[in-house]
Amino acid sequence: MTVTDHARSDAERDLTPPEEEPGRPGLVTAAVVLWIVLGALMVGTALLFGLGLAFGTADPGTGPAAVVAAMVVLAAGGVGTIVAARRAGRGSRRARTVLTAVGVVLAAVGLVQVTFLGVGGAWFVAFVAGAVLLHLPAARAWFGRFR
Fold it and tell me: 17: which DSSP letter?
């Protein structure tokens, strides 16, 4: 034992995690939580579309088939996003790639929405942030441990 080991109490040594086993970086956890929230919001939006369709409050210019198609796409995308986020949280590089692709596509959609409709800026920022967080240096190093 070294002098430093003698200076620490047994309780302190037991509570201190070993340095050779670092956990998941906080920014990966933040990205996973953000993606799960975004996936849940997508599913929630699909449910709201369904309620609008059921109660006849959908846009009169939009046919029911288009609303149902949007519901299916949103629900499937939301569930897929949640599943991919959970897998990315366990180190899946494929899930990280899927979330990055989803982030790029939905950020582009959000940018078009902001540009032409003037709404949806928060969505654009959230999808960009979710994709970027998974590619910062600490996240790259952590995902690099999983092959």
Answer: P
Q: How many domains does the chain have?
A: 1
Interval 7-25: pLDDT, tens: 566 666 565 544 444 688 9
Structural domain of 66? 26-144
pTM for this prediction: 0.79
Which tens digit of pLDDT belongs to each residue from 54-110? 888 777 788 888 889 999 999 999 999 999 999 999 999 999 999 999 999 988 888
CB 33 within 8 A of CB 89: no
- The answer to whether residue 131 sits within a structural domain is yes
Q: How many CB atoms lie within 10 A of CB 114?
A: 16
- Residue 118 covered by a domain: yes
Phi, psi of 8 (to 5 degrees): -85, 145
- Residue 5 inside a domain? The answer is no
DSSP string, 19-73: TTS----HHHHHHHHHHHHHHHHHHHHHHHHHHHHHTT-S-TTS-HHHHHHHHHH
> In this structure, is residue 7 part of a structural domain?
no
d(CA 146, CA 133): 17
